[in-house]
Amino acid sequence: MQRTSRWGVVAPLVFAVIALLALARSTIIMVYLGVTHFREVNPISVPLSYYAFVEGGEQLFFSAAVALAVGTLALLIGMARSGVRMAGRPTVLLAVWAVCLVLAAVFPADDAPRIMTFGGWVHQFAGAGILALLSFAGLAAASRLAEHPQWRPVVSTVRTLSIAAAVLAGAYVASRLNDLVPGVYGPVDVGGILQRMVLAFHVAVVAALAVQLVRVSWPAVRRKAADASAAPGGPTVAPRP
């Protein structure tokens, strides 16, 4: 029983750290791909998924997507273990968003002007889910978190980041009109950078929640450690004279 209670206290912090490490890994990989393959994949106009078509990029792109999904799921588990109940819309939306990340990596986009394959359609729908779902999840989570005093400091941050991501996602969808009417927005296609900005705000939402989970769970871990060190030791046997 003592081991179980100790794990119950430490678990939220462990999952928060896992989430932050996964987010850091995903971010570092995407920045590396952007810098290394700047000439092959123009970050201003070309979507992120096209890193899968450069040499050595497919495995790294898949790894980054999976790491972000794992970090999101670790965050959900950690928040649940800390006593935050987000059952329903926030949890479903975040979980489906994580699944969409993996699907978009498993089924790459068609390297063609039009969608030609089943995998290309899966990627298209998964990409739409990535753009839309986390903003709704963040707004739904903010409403739930406002009910918990310990989580109120992060509510405004999550809400602001989610709204900003939704606005950028709408701008990205509008920029795709350039595919139907080339040059409608001028000579430069900014869809790639808009997509990257949306994902950056999404990562920021998950990171803000993970950092707050650390802040919430760390005092409980310290109290548990202090109680354990202050507990009286077992009985001692006096030495014989």
Give me the secondary-structure topology.
Blueprint: H1 2-36, H2 57-81, H3 89-106, H4 118-145, H5 152-175, H6 177-180, H7 191-230
Helix pairs in contact: 1-2, 1-7, 2-3, 2-7, 3-4, 4-5, 4-7, 5-7
Walk me through this protein's architecture.
The chain is mostly helical and 241 residues long. The protein has helices at residues 2-36, 57-81, 89-106, 118-145, 152-175, 177-180, 191-230. 35% of the residues are buried. Residues 234-241 have low confidence and may be disordered.
What labels describe this entry?
241 residues, mainly alpha, 7 helices, 72% helix, 0% strand, disordered C terminus
In a nutshell, what does this entry contain?
With 241 residues, this protein is an all-alpha fold. It has helices at 2-36, 57-81, 89-106, 118-145, 152-175, 177-180, 191-230.
Q: What is the alpha-carbon Rg in Å?
A: 22 Å
**Unreliable stretches, pLDDT < 50, 5 or more residues?**
234-241
How many extended strands? Answer: 0
The shape is elongated
Task: Give the mean pLDDT.
Answer: 86
SSE-based structural type? mainly alpha
Number of helices: 7
**Biggest pleated-sheet summary:** none
Task: Report strand %.
Answer: under 5%
